[in-house]
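Reviewer 2 asked us to include a model.

Predict the structure of this chain.
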Amino acid sequence: MSASTADHNDNDYNNEDDISNICANCGKGEENTNSLKACTACKLVKYCNRECQIAHRPQHKKACKKRAAELHDEKLFKYPLQQYEDCPICFLRMPVLDSGRRYMSCCGKVICSGCMYAPVYDDKGNEVDEKTCPFCRSLAPESNEEAIEMLKKRSCGRDAKAICTLGGYYYQGIGLPQDYEKALESWHRSGELGHATAYYNIGNAYDVGGGVEVDTKKARHYFELAAMLGDVRARHNLGCIEGQAGNIDLALKHFMIAVKCGGNAPLGIMRGLLYKGSVTKEVYTEALQSYQAYLDEIKSNQRDKVAAEDEDCKYY
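Predicted model (structure tokens):
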């Protein structure tokens, strides 16, 4: 069959069995169906080779863009996994606020504030030095220099949090010469390993022009990557971007996900939208209930005690 007689409509390829065996351009099948390559953007059609893909592009372009946008939104608005695992000591859900947890460069664990400041005992029941890591029991670094050396060792492997944190030292010039290029390089590597905060940091850099030219498209791109990995701040920013563009429905989608993940600021924005009539009472009630469910999951007497004694350790 020639290409001219194989002018298929993309709707003809909704059947997965059909598109797995037929090239959308020339109509030829392949004995080895693995040799047919799917359109990477929409997954709707397959081709024998790049030449067939290029030849079919004028016919496929519109449907491809539409389906690619649908796939992107499905992924973007899918409820994400928790950004951090439960605390490895108390096994309670990790607080969203940075003040509610701490990364330990000695063992690579993220520990909640409650366990971080709770008394640590040895195997004989004796209380040990408060500077001892509550998880691995090794001495915590006493200076930025010591912490950086530990981070460098951990970043040689696949410790995404260590790599991201090291990028922060480069970005701010703390303990290391300020180097935006090395910071972004570290964050890109960390993000590729699945660390949401790294992508948020990159997005924020492009948003405010920190070491790079301001680029709103790139900022949004990295905020989306961070949000899909569970970063509440990135999700909040996306909601604000949509709200400022007048896309209230999309903004509310982002804010609702952020609230369910523990975001307090989006809840405040939704309250304001309620007063303006842009949010129904039912939707706002659902948001309140979702946030309360989050608070119930992270509640800990030890965390409450620490937060009451030290405002800097507030976790909700």
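The CA atoms of residues 86 and 94 lie 5 Å apart. Residues 3-76 form one domain. We have added this to the supplementary material.
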